[in-house]
Structure formats: C-alpha cells, structure tokens
Amino acid sequence: MDHVEGALSARDRVGVLDFVLLENYRSEDAFIENLRKRFQHNLIYTYIGPVVVSVNPYRDLKLYTPEQMQIYRGVNFYEAPPHIFATADNAYRSMRGEARDQCVLISGESGAGKTEASKKMLQYLAVCSTHSHDVDRIKDRLILSNPVLEAFGNAKTIRNDNSSRFGKYMDVQFDYKGAPVGGHILNYLLEKSRVVQQAEGERSFHIFYQLLAGADQDLLDTFFLERRPDSYAYLSKGNCTRVSSIDDKADFKTVYNALKVIDFTQEEIEELLSIVASIIHLGDVVFTSDGDRAGIIDAMPVNRVARLLQCPEEILEKALTHRTIVAKGEKLLSPLNEDQAAYARDALSKAVYDRMFTWLVQKINTSLANKEQYRKHVIGLLDIYGFEVFQKNSFEQFCINFCNEKLQQLFIELTLKSEQEEYLSEGIEWEPIAYFNNKIICDLVEERHRGIISILDEECLLPGDPTDLTFLAKLENAVGEHPHFVSHRTGDVQTRKTLDRDEFRLRHYAGDVTYSVTGFLDKNNDLLYRDLKEAMCESKNQVTSSCFPKSELDDKKRPVTTATQFKTSLNQLMAILMKEEPSYVRCIKPNDNKMPGVFDPILIRHQVKYLGLMENLRVRRAGFAYRRPYEAFLNRYKCLCKDTWPNYYGKPKDGVELLCQSMEYRHDEYRLGNTKIFIRLPKTLFATEDAFQLKKHDLATTIQATYKGHAQYKKYKRMQWAVTMIAAHWKRVAAKRLLERRRNAAQVLRRYINGFITRNQPPNGDNEMFINHCRVTFLHKLRDSLPKSILDKSWPTAPPNLRETSALLKDMFHNNQVRRYCLNMSPQKKMQMQEKLTASEIFKGKKSSYPESVAQPFKSNRLTPQHEALKSKVFDKKYLSQEERPKYMSPVTKYDRHGYKTRPRVLIATNLAVYILDEQDFKLKDKILYENLTGISVSELADGIFVIHAECTDKKEKGDVILLSDQVIEATTKIALAAGKINSIQVVKPGGLAYTMSGGKEGLIEFSLGAETRVEKGKKGQLVVSACDGN
C-alpha cells in the first residue's frame, strides 16, 4: 500500500504527510496546525511535493538506525513515510538510473538541524552505496571530514550549541557502479569576526576549547597554554567557556584521530594546532596609549605568538604597533594609536584563522580527490544558513539573506521547470502559474554599477574618509526609488518611526528586514595592514606560509571586497546547482530553548515565512495537487467500480477512466496523462480515499464470510475422507502385525525350550540358538564387569561351554592391559621403574626400610635452590670435567672416620666418580673414582647409614666414607647404577661392619636393634648405630 494514500484516513488525527494535500493550502494557520499534529505524534518529516520539511525534535527518536535505512533503500519516494532517507535514496537512484548529477539543498535557522540533516544523508549514502577497500577509505574520509569542519567552523550560539558559522557545499563523487570515489567541499562566508568577539552566552569556534580540554599536558606546554579558557581574552568574551551538552575533551580526540585518517601528517597537525594556540595568545596582547602612539604592555604574548608561528618577534611586534604608508612613492612608518593597534591585532587574528580554515578545506579536498579520468557523477549537499532576522541585522545578515534570495530564485525556477517538464511528458496542457519573482530583489543587491554591493564597493574605494553614513546616503540616491528599498530619508512618516537614521529596509521574498549600516564598510573592506602580511610571510610554519604566500606582497591590486567575493562564489554555486537536479530539505526548530516536545507556533510561523514554505506550497498547488501512475491508482481504488473489481484485464488508463466515471469526477477535477492521473484538488482525493475506507469494511465482511464458509467446508470434507482412510488402513496393518508377532513368538519359545533341554549336548540345530544366547549374555556381562586396573584379578564366572574361551579372553585382556600400561609409560618413568626394579633385587627382603621406599619415586636431584646456585658457580666450573655428567645429587651427613663428628655434605654422583662437597661453599672433601670403588655396605635395619668402600692406592687417600641419608635405598642404588657395579652393594646383618681408614687402619661400625634410630660413638671408640628392624 502506498503511504501517501494509506495515511489519508488518519489525517484528522496526525495531519497529512504532504502539505500539497492540505485543503486550505493558502492558510498559514492550517499549515502550522498540520505541522503541530505531526510533531506531537513524533512525525517530524512532512513533504511539500518533493520538498522535505524537517522539525528538530531535540531528542533521539530512533529514526536513523540501520533497520530504518533498509526501509528506504531502493523504494519509491512515496512508498514509505516522509523521511530524509527517502530524499537521499531518491537522489542516489536518480543519479545511478538517469546518469544525472544531483544536489540536496538544506536550509533553515541556526539550531533547526541542518548540520545533523547533512550528516544523516551522508551516512545513508555511505551505507547504501557499494563497498570495497578503497571505497570504504573514501567513505571514512567523507564522514570524518564532518567533525573536523565542525570543530573549526562551528560554535556555540544562543540558539544552537553546534551552530555552523559557515556555508558548506560538499560534492560526493560516484563511479558508474554507484560507489563513492571522491569528494570536494566549497566553503562560504566563514564568520571570522567570532574569533575576536562573541555575544553574551556564546563561544568562539569549538577547536579553541577542544584544544585546551583534550590535548595532553606536553602538547599544552609546547603551546604555552593552560586548561583555563576563561583566562584568555578571545575565548571568554561571551562569558560561556563550558557547555553541558558538549564534551570538548572527547571531541578533541575525535578530531585528532579524524585528521590522521584524512591524510594529515603529524607535522601538519601540530602546525595547525600551533596556529590555533597563537590566535589564543594574540587575544592577550594588550596595548597602552602614549599620546598617539600605542605600546604593548606585556611582550610575553607576542613572544609566544612569534614562536608558535615561527616568525621574527621584532617584525611582528613592530607590525602590531606601526603601519607603513606609501606617499608620493616614499614609504613612511606611521605609529598606530591604541584603537588602531587593537584593530590591527583583531584583523590579524581573523585573517589568520580565515585563511587557515580555507587551507584546511583545501587539504581535506586533496585527501578526497579522485584523480581517475573516467566520468563521475555527483550528489551535492548544500548546508547553508537560512534566512536570518535579528533585533539588529548587519553586514553578515545582509549577505546571508542575499544568498537565500538567490536560492529561492533557483528553487522557483527549477520547480516550475520540473512541473513544465512533467506536464509536457504526460501530454497535459501547461497552465501558467502566477508567483512572486524575486529576481527584482536579486538585481537590487547584485546588479553591476547600480546594485547595493556595487555601491558598497565604490564607497570603500573612495579616497578620503568615507563612513557608513555616506554609504547609506549614496544608497538612498541610487536606489531610493526602488519598490523594495526604504530608509529613514526615503520612507513616509509612518515608516520613519520604525527606522533609525543609520538603517535601511529591504522587502525580501520572505518579508521585510531592517539592516544597520554600522560596520558595513569595515566588514566589506576587511583590510589587513601590509606590515602584518609581511610578518606572516616570514613565518617558518608551513601552514601559515602557504596561507600567506610572498607573491601576495608583489600584487599591487586592491584586494577584492568581502561582498564581491561572496557574490562571485554565490554565482558560481548557482551555476553548479543549475546543472544538477535538486532536492530540498527545509529545517525548522520548534522552540528557542532546545526542549523536546515543545511547539512554539509564533516561532514556527516566523520560520515558515522566512523559509518561503507558503510560496513553495502555492507554486506546487497552482496546478494539480496529486498525481499517480495508473497502475498504482487502479490497484488501490478498483474496488470502487464494479467494472474494475475484482480484476481489470484491459489497459490501466482505460480502467482509471472507468473508475473516474463511476466516482463521478467532474472534468475540471482531473486530467489523464500518458502514464499518470492528475487530480487538481485534495478534496477529490480525500473523497475517493474515504469511499475506499468505507468500501473496505463491506469488502472485508463479504470476503471474510465467503472465505470462512469455503474453508470450513473444505476442511470438513478433508477430515471426513482422512478419517475413513486412516481407520481402514490402520485396522488392516494392525491385524497383520499382530498375527506376525504371534507366529514369531511361538517359534522363538519353542526353540528356547528345546535348547534348554539339550543345553549340555554338543551344539546342534535344537540348542544352537539357546547356546548363542548364553554366550551373548555372558559377553555382555563380561563387557560391563571387566577389571579396571592391572592389579585387579577378578573375572566373571563363565558357563560350562565357555570356560575355555573365558580363560583365553582373560589372558588376552591381561596381556593387553600390561602392553597398554608399558606403551603409555614415559622414558623417565621407565627409567624410574628400572631403578626401582634394581633396588628391589638388591634390598627386597633384606633391608627393613625397603617397603617404605617402594611408594616414593626416585629422584636424580634433591638439591635446594641455594645448592643449585653453588653447584653452577663452584662445582661445575672447578671440579666437573667436560666428559662428566651428574647422575645423582643429594644432601647427606658425613661421619668423621675417627671422632664420628657429623658434617653436612652434598653428594654428587657423576658417570665417573662420587664427589663429597662441603654444603657451605661446595669445597671438595672426597672424590672416589668408580674404578677404585670396591663396595657399598648398608645394614639390614631401618637406619640410613651406608659406607662407600674405596681401594687405597697411596697413603694420602683417607679411606672409606661413612654417610647418612634419608633416602639410603635411592642413594645406594643410584651410585651403584652410575658406577655400573650393581653387585657391589652388601646388606650386613646386625653386628660389626669394618671400614678402612687412612694408613690402612680399620674402624668398626656396630649395628644393633633398638626402639628408635640412634647414631653415637661407643665406649670402645666404635660407631654405634641402633635402629629398629621395621616390624
């Protein structure tokens, strides 16, 4: 269903979604009431034909989600509710389908949502166009150019926390596949006066406050800045340095990262920010008056500006307080007074920021440029100031309103042209439309030699000392008789009461605006003294030097005035827009307090007037209010005519004609074109839609009754047939299944009984099934009760005819368990098991402490971290030869051979010898080569004493070594294995054990049973070891 017609039934509650369908379209009250109804139901978009009227809701209505984008993607303009996405999609499809350049003109007051509208359209184009790596790179740059331009070109005003203070036209370039491949931005009339002056409650451009809030401390120190914007003159003129709805710190991070994505180098970013910082410091330059000479009170700000801009300080200081005048070919240095010096300082600040902003836009354009030579199509987004009327209107409002006059002229021309083309293509006679042609106002402003801009430029060029009042006088003489111009001198008595002597009034298309000429000449001249230009040309800052080229100093021509520059740029913009197919978005703010849900009809009426919406509607309604393709119209309303319902198989045009005759349309109420029906008055369409809404109930009732009856009858017949068929088939199948089950059961029972009777006979035909069943049962039981461990010897009892098989399975299973255990054993574990096996062969049944050692795994290294450090530092370097490898290391206690005093030692067994080392410094105490090892003796008791017997080849050798170890089984086994002398270990019974001392002497160790282990010196000088036997 088309949304235009579908929404008509709710028009009394939520209004019409297209103002063209307003019955009383000439009434401003009806227009505003329709806006109010839709606004109260969160319907912020309404059409005037192809024009979108947008009311700022001041809250998130979830209208811009990816799901919303998909609703409008590739859909006809009127097939979805009014939305800015519909305009974006229509422009994109027209560009691809018709290969025609498009443009979207977005206008409205500050705070009406123009900037947000342009961002949402750009996001839609980015999402809905084709994708690739290069395309996504361009999309990122297009989208990220917005926060950069907003930072440098937007500011907080009384009406808007993020007000664009410049006009912007962005061209998004697309290739033949519809992918964005580049872009270009044109900027217009930056409000550079905001750099040096802000109204109460307003701020300068965002970037100044973002820099102070978001830059790291090192960067601020580099720029000589502090995080206190209220301490800088230029930033605190409006007494509003912080805004609750703005996060300057986070925004700075966004801008900084965006600059990197847009291809700014780190050096360019720093130079750009240093210019911003220099302007902040320039505002703190304060002058004092010494007669007619101005002097600088504090030179520190000048020094910082010079260092940041990298220009000579003495040249800058001189340029701020003096001016070079050329008189009769001679250059004279004239000092400036205090006011002139302040003017020069502010002029420099404005010029530097304005040129920096222009350089920034050019740099972004370079990043977005596409150098391919193939033909590209564009969609342009024009985000420009709307018509402005303040309590006091000056030069800026004059330029802005002149721009809107030109755009209104363009809109009327293109709208009428579009209407004429559609009428011509449909074969309908064109009826001339009466409208206000504002060309007369445009000529009043821009006509050569006679227009206001030409007169203003002429006055600026006059020698002597022209003033704003002399300009006004000349204006009154030149255009005083013009019907759209009036001043205090040229007006009647009643008019003079409303105009001061320094004011004039223009009658614009949107209403009368009074301008004060104060400041017109200065703002139009916008002079920057040559001395200041020369100082900037000396800058080593690359951005500044490119903004102030030295070639500019050689140009003797007078700079073009601001108004002429703006007029030229505007005419160029008009030429661009005339070549493109336009779409329009008119933005309205509902209240001045930025509050959601508040609708101020007085403020709305003011904007409707100055946006020219009533004029737009009147032009659109001058012909036919509604037009629709035959197929869509016939498909919706065919039920209103018996000749077209339910289906019409002829030509759609003939069907629509029958429908119109049935509805008794008068001839002057409609026309039939080649592909569309045109309806002149909304009431004709409303009557048709109301008839359709009424008819739907009758049709719905008839269709519902017929369908329900037919559906129930079909359902009954299907169920009846199904019951019969299912019952018959099921009875037959159930009987066959029962018979088969009984036969099988009887056979199985018979075979089992015979098998049981003959179960002990050799297998035969009678008992084979029963024996197999017994086998399967046993195997299932065996499967569920297999031993889980290699030590588990349990096994289920087998039937008599499976005992041999059970025995074979038991052996196979046990062998498999052993094999799997051996395969899963690691080499280290296998070595441990071999060592344990060796220990078992030596000590099992011989030494009492052996059973306790079985559960403890053998280790090759029992040294502490301190021992390890000493080993690496002393033993490895002093005693260990290259061919030696440690095999076993453990702390032990050594007993002296004579007094049996205990000594803490460390035992290290290598592949060649046993080393006994001092525990404190690892000094070598004994070394026994394996070739001299004659045996190792231990007692069969539970003590830890063992003796290493060594052959004494000379008198210097000390003899056998008596040691005590907590791991005596491990130590003796490891030493025997390392020496390759397994059979050298001797387990002695309680009694005496002789050992050899130096000089061939012998000592005695006496072993005896006791309650606890004790080692002490005996009365006869022997070593007495008392220990239990382990039982």
TrEMBL record:
Q: Which residues does the annotated region (Actin-binding) include?
A: 570-592
Binding positions (ATP): G108, E109, S110, G111, A112, G113, K114, T115
Q: Which organism is it from?
A: Branchiostoma belcheri (Amphioxus)
Cite the source lineage: Eukaryota, Metazoa, Chordata, Cephalochordata, Leptocardii
Give start and end of each Myosin motor domain.
15-693
Assigned keywords, A-Z = Actin-binding, ATP-binding, Motor protein, Myosin, Nucleotide-binding, Repeat
GO annotation, biological process: actin filament organization; actin filament-based movement; endocytosis
Q: Name one Pfam family in it.
A: Myosin_TH1
Query: What CDD domains is this protein classified in?
Result: MYSc_Myo1
Q: Which GO terms describe its molecular function?
A: actin filament binding; ATP binding; microfilament motor activity
Query: What is the designated name of this protein?
Result: Unconventional myosin-Ic-like
Please give the superkingdom of this protein's source.
Eukaryota
Q: Where is the TH1 domain?
A: 847-1029
Which cellular components does GO assign to this protein?
Answer: cytoplasm; microvillus; myosin complex; plasma membrane
Stated family: Belongs to the TRAFAC class myosin-kinesin ATPase superfamily. Myosin family.
